[in-house]
Design a protein that fits this description.
heterodimer; A: about 450 residues; alpha/beta; Rossmann fold; Dimethylsulfoxide Reductase, domain 2; 2 domains; nine-stranded mixed sheet; five-stranded parallel sheet; B: about 550 residues; TIM Barrel; eight-stranded parallel sheet; 18 helices; about 30% helix; about 20% strand; globular
Chain lengths: ~450, ~550
Amino acid sequence: MTIDCASSLPVVVSNSVCTQCGCVCDDIGLVIENGRITAANNACDKGREWFLGNHEEGDEFAFVEGKPAPLTEAIDRAAQILLKARYPLIFGLSDTPCEAQRQAVALADRVGACLDTTTSISHGAFGMAFQEVGEVTCSLGEVKNRADLVFFWGTDPATTHPRHGERYSLEAKGLFTPNGRSDRFVVVVDVDETSTAKKADLFLQIKKGSDFEALWGLRALVKGLATRDDIGAQTGIPLEVLKALAERMKSCHFGILFFGPGLSASRGRHMNAEAALGLVKDLNDYTRFYAKPMTGPGNVTGADNVVCWQTGYPLGVHFGQGFPRFNPGEFTALDVLGRGEADAVMLVAIDPAEHLPVAARKFLGSVPSIHLSDNPKAEGNDRATVLFLTATYGIRAAGTVYRMDDVSLPLRPVLATKRPTDEEVLVAIERRVHALQVESGMKPSSSSKRAR
Amino acid sequence: MALLKISQVIIHDPAQNIDGVVGDLWIRDGVVIVAPSDPSEKPDRVVDARGLVAMAGGVDMHCHIAGPKVNLARKMRPEDKRLAEPVRRTLETRSGTVGSVPSTFATGYLYTGMGYTTAIDAAIPPLSARHALEEFHDTPILDKGFLILLGNNHYALRQIAAGEPGRLRDFAAWLIKSSGAFGIKLVNPGGVENWKSGLRGMNDLDTPVQHFGCTARQIIASLAQAAMDLGLPHPAHIHCNNLGVPGNFATTLATMEALEGRRAHLTHIQFHSYGGHPDDQSLFCSETARLADYFNRHKNLTTDVGQVLFGETTSMTGDGPVGYYLSKITGRKWTNSETEMEAGCGIVPITYKEKSFVHALQWAIGLEWYLMVDDPWRIAMSTDHPNGASFIAYPEIIAQLMSKNYRDEILARVHPRVAEKSRLRELDREYTINEIAIITRSAPARMLGLSHKGHLAPGADGDVTLYQPDNDRRRMFEFPRYVIKSGEVVVDNAEMRRDFAGRLLHVRPGHDTAAMPDIRKWFESFYTIQFDNYPVDEHYFDQHTVVDCRPGG
């Protein structure tokens, strides 16, 4: 539903969906007055800041070389850039709905681009581990209804996922957890005493960079095998404590291990994630135990899903040979940019300042670029060869987003927009490329390879 | 294309008792019509089909092609795609990857390229319906629908335990409508909930489900009855308890009996036809004969096979404990994913080997089912894609069914004990072309209640496959010369030429709105999304067809 901007009476839109973290809370009551959001009931501080922030739109939304341009001209220029490039990179996709993500993959397929999402620089290490061992996991409602033992390892949801505890993992009351928090034993493993650690029944301060050793030690202890005597000195967690922990894990009814960048982005990376997934898998010989990475903000989980169902691979896909090839490290954006391989870059719904190191950001300025962004002030927008200012998803644009546990939710815009959506721009560029391909004499059934 | 004529084609349309008669087929605006009586009416296109065989488009009534479980399998198995020939991009079609779990566009093209035009995904948790529909949007050409998992749904279990068939029926109707589903599926009824609450081991039909109190027998009978009362075009679709466990034929027989004459479809029956004992592999044997005998005598039942073929594939199921069991046997990577209030899921890579006694016996048991069921109208071809094998293997199954010699060749290669533990060698039956048409399109369409599919009579959907007759049956059915979907020539002289969206097939059973306050109260207590965000908005259905329900009919 889009609210009539001219109406001055406050309108309340209930069940609105927030995309500011992997919780994707869908119980937000937005109050709209005079074409502005004036309240976001139920939202956490992060959500409120987002909903109540500045979502004003100027009159111009298409720019070529910094100057306002007709939309068709900008579309044509973008299509020309992508067709001319020998190694175009399409990157981002996390702050846009699945409908736009699907079109971004379609465009990458058509022009033979390299395609990557912010997953490769956030929870990509988890993805690698998942491909090695699989994952025993569940939707967040299973945690709410059943979990009597909850781990947060290398993650501080009290800061990053503020309503996680209330909705799913700590205070949430469910079918077999009628008393909420008091039905659960909560363990936090981290290098510092985080805000979440302060709410735990047990906080284990682990030495930086020893997650793998602690997890592998626990795997041994769970199986009743010996572990290194000096594991206490190595990890900062005494052997006796680990032994007791292993017993507690085996004897719970339903355990869940939430882990975050402290585990999967520290020394050992995907090996740490693999150790965590392996530990959880082993525990299922004794009880029911589950794992879940705490993914970051935006629709990253949607991007993982969309890229995977269209190509078979979740990230780091190259279409240059006329079909999807997957090679993290080769086709992942940081690497492509770091090596200076791309000769044109399209950024979709990503602020480089938030995601990319300085070297990669510098390189971006050296090749033709196409930006789709809802924020005129995002870094590099002023230097983009073609810039499309698009409607903000969840506020002015509709679509579908995925929660950190793969549950999908509908976004219903509450404010009208003058701008096109990411999806509309991407479809238009894809259609324009198609028209140019037909003009150039490409045959319907010919499969084209891009020279590399 | 407004008017299409397929001229002088050899028609195999068992629904009309047409068995290899030469004639013309006419399709106007996507629907088969009688030949125009006005001779001046010129078709927009004539396909000269002299010497070709025409059948209705193939119908896969049980496969796994969309939704969270399928996508997790894609995500988990990059290695599965590396050796498979990919689908290449063309000017009009998308690229994709294959392996045992093809990407969405590849799925649409591969089915169509093989002459199949309809596919039903058999296991979607209602909470994931929106996800399945999004994948359907990217699975071109095919008409598609899905069944929702209901046999371990908490609200359903509560109503069954409380003896409230009316509430169960209203709930099922609401859930089907909210999710855009085509029908209901039971997976290991009660057993998945037991697994989720920490129990393991065999599930018998009469031990109450932990925390809920109803038995599997009650779940089976109650949901089969609900499907009939709602007049769903397809009856309750049942994946029995104890899949894959030696000795499980007794459970399967008990399930057939528990239905007490109600209509039901027993799926991938091959995986449920084992004799022997869970703890002694040497006793493992086929019990197809006993089950097929009961099945042949009880016309309320239909089945699909879930044929195993040799090679690499991915096991994926809503039956969580099966995933665990397989991961312990294979030692390979394992994904398990539970959905709150609704369902479970297990995914494990598996390689079926000719020299494995168990795998080879599974292969033989599947064939026994095709060959021992008297009435081909009650058995549909399936591999439970990708569980027994990929759907790409259907032409291979056809070749095996049509040639006893070919079966014997394979039997001579596989583990020697299979010949003594099954009756495959003594089964001389060879399928005719018309019988193949029955089990690959006409029967599954009829079982699904799709009156406009699976045949070529006027009024049928304009979905037609034209094959080049060939003694190499596998080649014949692998590479049709023409595939026409909704009257459009998609495969044109063996080349994929068109790309467009197929339709969603779903049902909208009626229910009493007085049931809603109780459902809502329950939902709001236990789910983690808002009640009002649960039903899928209609725009996700895109192009869709509502298939009629016939309560009382």
